[in-house]
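Batch 3, record 17
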Amino acid sequence: MKQENIRNFSIIAHIDHGKSTLADRILELTGAITEREKQDQLLDNMDIERERGITIKLNAARLNYNYKNQDYIMHLIDTPGHVDFSYEVSRSLAACEGAVLVVDAAQGIEAQTLANVYLALENDLTIIPVINKIDLPNADIPKVKKELVETLGFSENEIILTSAKTGEGVKELIEAIIERVPAPTGNKDDSLRALVFDSYFDSYKGVVALVRIKDGKLKLKDKIKFMATNATYEITELGFNNPKPQNTNILECGEVGYICASIKSISDIKVGDTITLENNPAKESLPGYKPMRPMVFCGLYPVETNKYPDLRDALEKLKLNDAALEFEPETSEALGFGFRCGFLGLLHMEIIEERLEREFNINHIATSPSVIYKITKTDNEVIYIDSPAKMPDRQKIKIIEEPYIKTNIYVPSEYIGSIMELCQNKRGTYISMEYLSQTRVNIHYELPLSEIVYNFFDKLKSSTKGYASFDYDLIGYKPSDLVKMDVLLNGEVVDALSLIVHKDFAYNRGKAIVYKLKEIIPRQLFEVPIQAVIGSKVIARTDIKAMRKNVLAKCYGGDITRKRKLLEKQKEGKKRMKMVGKVEVPSEAFLAVLNIDEEK
Amino acid sequence: MSIYIHIPFCSSICTYCDFCKLLKNEKWINEYLDALTQEIQEKYNKEKVKTIYIGGGTPSSLSLENLKKLFNILKIFNLDNQCEITFETNSEDLTIEKINFLKKHINRLSIGIQTFDKNIIKTLNRKLNIDNVKLAFKNFDNINIDLMYGFQNQSIENLKQDLKKIIKLNPKHISAYCLILEPNTKLYIDNYNPVDDDKERQMYDLIVETLKENNYIQYELSNFSKKGYKSKHNLTYWNNNNYYGFGLGASGYINNVRYENTRSLNKYLKGNYIKEKHELSLKENVQNEFILGLRKLEGINKDKFYKKYKFNIKDIEPVKKLLSQNLLIENKENIYINPKYLYISNEILLNFI
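Prediction for the assembled complex:
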């Protein structure tokens, strides 16, 4: 294909604004899929993605379109919508020349709309603004147009109106992409430079990398080199998704596709890396490779201790699809051998956990998430800790600092009060507020990241009936009056339940945690006291009463078979329990701190 | 050998019952008794019979004529002189005619009273004829009364009243069961709310205490008797011994095989009696020994265990562990559950699963 007839674009949007549905319509209209193959949200491969209606992993599809008697190929690169995955968004944008910005006709601009626009601008992309869901009864097209013009500086005649549901406006959009998005600019005669913008593990092919050819071309059997790691391989398979995988012998300058090269070692491939040819290497790698930094950490432990190697294998495989995931071995007195894992955010953590359960069938326990604290010791040594267990003695600490963020909270103005109340309760400092329109505002607060990790999203949603959207930037470390709080079960410290908390909040949180644990931990044969302590000072206590009843009632003649089944079922339930000292603790107890309500 | 015979017919259906039961119908009863005869003749191997239990359903709901037919069938059995023959009844069926007839054929009567509270009786869709009950007590020595507790909003005071009335009747044997909501029962569908665990336990403790004060010996989790009046038939189950089960939905345990009969009347009448058969492994057998045997307050006899399985009960790992935790207790002959933990015995049994 001639380079000038190639168009590479992404669709960017706030979560739920109809990005994946619009992608499906484009696939349909370009004939990439037939009516019969239609399965909602084709580009979302993972079950979790379809169920939750979110896109986590990137995906790239090639489309063919004839416009004004010219054949075009277009590569559509899907992007995740959640703030946790903005690194993936920026990688996929780096593979494109254009971005379709989708805004919901009823919701208007939201936090991630803006975040995504900034990412697209950073990557120098041509942006095509689209107002989607115009078929909705509560669509307010003039209002959203005004937001796009006033907030983001588009001109009104650039805006395309679509309904991904009915298909209206989609053809016009495709043609606008051809008209407005520039063709790839790379030089086909230069030495090869291909950007790796995603990778995943396929149990048959090994590592598969998604690439965009920036300069030169890539052929089957070429010997390639990854410029960041210097690893070399021979290309065993080349292809593109149409949207099903199709083999090809060559990927040319400007094209997007996948490569396989019998890559077994997961550490050899890094998203953002540049591929070149071993015998004709490019002088410089493409800009853009920066390692992602996890912001949220937690311990992951197998429920059954002998599953530790399985957990390690699973994490290694997940890491392959998910460069942002980090993990290192960790030991807990209560939980045994496990891993300290780092995630981009809470959603990322939830998704990894869910995939461990579903794809690898590993029953595991997650401990409360933590951020990275910066501690200056009395001898002026500075250390960073990602776990309460690594906290030095109180006497040895001079200053504790914690990461702070600055928020963009987009919300209808009637909720300003609730947002301010929420942020104050989360130790926030008010910075400023902008009116996007007469009824919508963007509120800026400075907040400790640890408070975001700790049930902020749920509170935000519940205090604004789901209308608020939220995004943040890290702004650095600030000193805080923090203490380590331990939880004792039956008189013994359970290290996996320890957490770092602000002194002013310790009492309420301690109380909430012990009551939550009382709710979660079933009654045992004996009474179990639960205490929250700071140092040696007990700040909250409650008791789990001894079990009063667990008995097979009537047991005559034929009942024995049924009774056995009942016992077997109970036994199955015990598998989710971890013995901590003499106490059986359900795995969800270790995340109790996330789900507590201090106002209770 | 012990024999259980199931009579699935009832005059009305109790709202909590999930047993195998049918509203009665003369034509079916006739055909049923014929099929029952067939089944017994096919399976029974002339063993000496030490206990018979005729349960239901409501066996007493049968007409006098059908009762005659039923007891004619029992002539097939080779009865031991001391054979305990129990017959389950509801009070409304205990007319003088039926009592006089039953007297000639059985030596143990079980009366389902459940409660004396008129409102609860109505909720359970049951009846109570106290005159008939008194008549039965004039004619039988060995009577069991079924008591139920744990009804929605039932007070401790209410249970005390039931206990008082039962004790006044002075039956030789009392079975006391907490109401359980089983799926597919009317109560379950109506979202009935039984009492919570704490209240239930309080009720159980009250029953155990009160009956003890009145000279009843608790010999099983839910069963109490005057001295010398334990249910021999039910001890067969709890001792994990063999028994035949005849009739619709009945189950039996013969030659290391546990079987369960069909609950479909059609299939049964056509002679397809058995729904499921399962030969037990040694492990399952030993597990059953614990699940059943530890229901008895005296527990499991160590010698008998050895004779049955050819190894020492104390060589079993969970037994060692539970003894060391004082959850199980050992005396000269037996190993039994620490009575403190009887009502949470599943926690102990789970160690064997």
